[in-house]
Each structure stands twice: as C-alpha cells, then as structure tokens.
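A common beginner's mistake is to predict each chain separately and then try to dock the pieces by hand. The better habit, illustrated here, is to supply every component at once so that their relative placement is modeled jointly.
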Amino acid sequence: MTLARRIIACLDVKDGRVVKGTRFRDHQDMGDITELAARYSAQGVDELVFYDITASPQGRRVDVDWIDRVAREIDIPFCVAGGISSVQDARAVLVAGADKVSVNTPATRRPELVGELAREFGTQCVVVGVDSLRDEDGQWRIRQLTGDPEATRALDTTTLAWVERVQELGAGEIVLNAMGSDGVRQGYDVEQLRAVRQVCGVPLIASGGAGTVQHFIDVFTEADVDGALAAGVFHSGDLTIGDLKGALHRAGVEVRLD
Amino acid sequence: MARPTVALVDSGGTNIASVSYALERIGADARLTNNPADIRAADRVILPGVGAAGAGMARLREAGLVEVLHEVEQPLLGVCLGMQLLFAHSAEDGGTECLGLLPGRVVPIPPAPGLRVPHMGWNTLTNLHADPLTEGLADGERAYFVHSFAVPVTAHTLQTTEHSGTWSAVVRSGNRWGAQFHPERSARAGARLLTNFILEVSP
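With all components supplied together, the output reads:
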C-alpha cells in the first residue's frame, strides 16, 4: 500500500471565525479562517475540513466568501460542510473552490440528496458526515442538528445501517463523528470505527477524541481508517502536524512527509 | 520574453477555480475561456475537469470545444477527468466516447481487499520515462488523487501510481500531456508540474 493515511484538521466555523467547543458546546474563538488554513497547510496537514456549525440549526446555507479566500490561499484539498441541502447549494460551494462537500443533517432529512449530489458532481465530491452516539441498548444511532445542543435530535436509524445506505446512494467518503468521545481527548472510538469499517467500502475518516500521538497510531492500526480528523489537539498546539506525522512514520503508518 | 499565456478551458467542471488559483500562485497569465479563438491563440491550453466522463464530454460538445481541442498544436494538459477525456473511450457512465487524442481506454479501478474506491488521497509517483513536465518530481513524491476510473499503463505513461493495480499518473503523446492527480491540490509536486508545463515543455 502506497496511499498515505490522511491527517485532517477540522476547523469549525461560526460567524466567519474558527471556533472550538467541547462535546459540541461552549465555543471559543480560535482565529481567522484563512490564517489557520495557511498555517496548517504549511505544517503539512493533508486536508482541511470546514464545518459551518451553525448553518443547519439556523436553517441557512454556508457562506461562500471565505471558501473563495481559502481556495486562493492553500494548495491542498479541502471540504466544506454545513447547511448544504441541495445540488444548488453544493454547486456554489464547489465552484467557489472547495474540493468536496460534506452533508450531514440535510442527508438525514432527505437521503436522496446524497444520490443527487453524486450524479451531478461525482461520488468523489460527496462526503457524508455521520454524528453517532451509543444508546443505552448498546446500539450506535445517528443524531441530527448537532451544531446546537438545544436542537440536537436522536434518530431511530442505526449508524451501521445508515453508513450502508448512504454508500448505496453514492457517498464517496464517510466521516464518522463519535459524539461520545468528541472534544475530550481520550482517544478515538476504535470499537465503533472498527464496526463501521466492516460495512464501509469507501474511504472512512475517524473523528472525535484525538488527544495524543498514540490515539492516531491506534485508530490507523486497529480500525484501518483512511484518515483521522482532529481539531482541538491541533488548535491548542499540544500536537503539531509535523511531530505527529514523524511519529506515525516511525510506528510504520504510511504518511505523507515533506 | 513575455510570460506564456494559458487558456484554461471552461468545461463547466467544478475545479476550475482551484486550477485557476493554482496558476495565479505560480505567476502564470491564465484566462478562463470557452472561446475557440482564445484557445487557439494561447501558448498553453489546460483542460481541467472533475465529475463523470459522460457529463464532461457532453459539456465539451455543447460548448463546441471538441473540434478546437483536436486542432490545438500548442502544449495541452488535461487534469484529472480532463486527462481521462483525452483518451479514446471511458467505461464510465455505461461507456463514453471521449476525445481520442491519446489511444487507450479508461477503466474502473477494481475492488481489492483493504483498498478503497474512490482512490482518494496522497499517493506516490514512480517515474517510467523522464520528461520536461515531470522534471524535479522524484520517485516517491506524493500527489493528491481522487478518482474511481483510471488509465492503465501504456507506452504513453510517464509516471505511475499504485492502488489496486498500477495506473497512469502522468501521460504524454507529442504535445498532449495529462495528469490524473490534482496539481492544483498537490502542494509542492503540483506547483512543480504546473510550473514545468508553463515554462519547460517545448512545443
């Protein structure tokens, strides 16, 4: 295998600024979008994801001005998520320079959206973000409207069934956000990711829980994910992309080194 | 000498802005156009593209660009889907007749245990033949790929990459080149390839 495992920095965007919360709450300002994008890109991150976390709860579409600025600035791929609920919304985001769009809440409301986007732009442009939490009966189930804790809703659909369904519809990549481990830096939800990997034939990205180098090594070697996404651990400076990739390389994980 | 002018063919794909910005970053004088006269007059022509082959060819036909792309004598570079469209045929969308500027067929990447399709991410390049376009891109250099269909290795392959088989990463036939990866999103390797295309390849 020569394809590198990807390290993805996630920038949550709120009102045109990058913010960071814990367990999807209590957002703090982390800085300017293009400045942070350029900094991570220079550090050797493989990809960036921008989540406009308030777009879905506020019922509005993602703002495209900053997408154009990011597209001019960086020379690595980036994905945009937040409030994309139609082919028209996705086109605006892609034409502004994003490489992929990620749909989450709108896909849970109208799953056909995934197929419409795949037919129009190709499956490689269509990422489905899945917010998942284990219920008391032991099943992982999906959530919607997770950008706003007041609005978040639990659905009856199990995470594994949803991941299978969206692939049939045309998802080219799955980002699994394990809500139980998000923001607390105790490690990725390897158990859940392994289960999802069994039903996921397209690239699978782990999200939620990264705190140390070992967490990244574990998720790549134990859950066989294609990429690992993190936010807080990079924003805080506790872990730099360069140090992380060096450690992954030494641990035998295939990564892109400069 | 003035900077070479670049006609960026407006094929309607969604990565045009990204390619255009990448050309701006390296200081190229690029113009987005679907005007055959502009395309014929430029020093370099780039055919970007993203999405599916059927829709890509339909857009080129609707815009009346098939003929002019056949007539172009200056260096032409197809990027990603734009490279695939240079070939004779693609298996995508139930079979699509393409431009036929290079011989060969585009085929689906077969499933293999532990390998995902689409082939998405940073993969290594391996040099088969030296060329001005790939000058400075050493074996093992990584570039960003996103595709589910691919061009097998042929006599026209300059560089390969591996993912459930060995595939063409960069191709050339005369003044026609193609890159399967996205130079506009491939950091140093991509900037080097685009710079070589603007400054190093000779008509």
